[in-house]
Amino acid sequence: MIYAASPYSHHSITVRRLRYEVMRDMALNWLQQGLGIFSPIVYTHPIVVEYKLQYGFAGYLKFDTAMVRSSKELWVVKLPSWEHSIGIEGEVRIAREVGISTVHIEPFGPTWDAVKTYLQDQDNKDAKRGGVPNAIC
Length: 137
Fold this sequence. Notes:
Radius of gyration: 14 Å
Shape: globular
Number of helices: 5
CATH superfamily: Hypothetical protein PA1492
Oligomer: single chain
CATH class: Alpha Beta
Helix content: 55-70%
Number of strands: 4
Order of helices and strands: EHEHHEHEH
């Protein structure tokens, strides 16, 4: 199995939804290619939204740790702000601890093409405000 890490948390529910949609479509593409992919965002976002649960890496640490440890590779999808994500940092740390290689992947697909500018603009606005937009993801 390949673990697909990506940023999720953000003060804007729209940004969280768009991050989910990009990852959902990328995961679909990989599954159609016959790859065994697990994306925690694709798995948990619908549950978080439906049941109004808290989101963020801290809440999923035990679950994400088990999933990373059972993977053969960790793919980091470079959505805007990925380099500030505490969740991705934690997932990469876990992968290193158990000797799992990490690969960085550029986002792709029709959803990404449609929302790329919006997500990049939100990232730039957050940076100008001096905030890290997804520090808890």
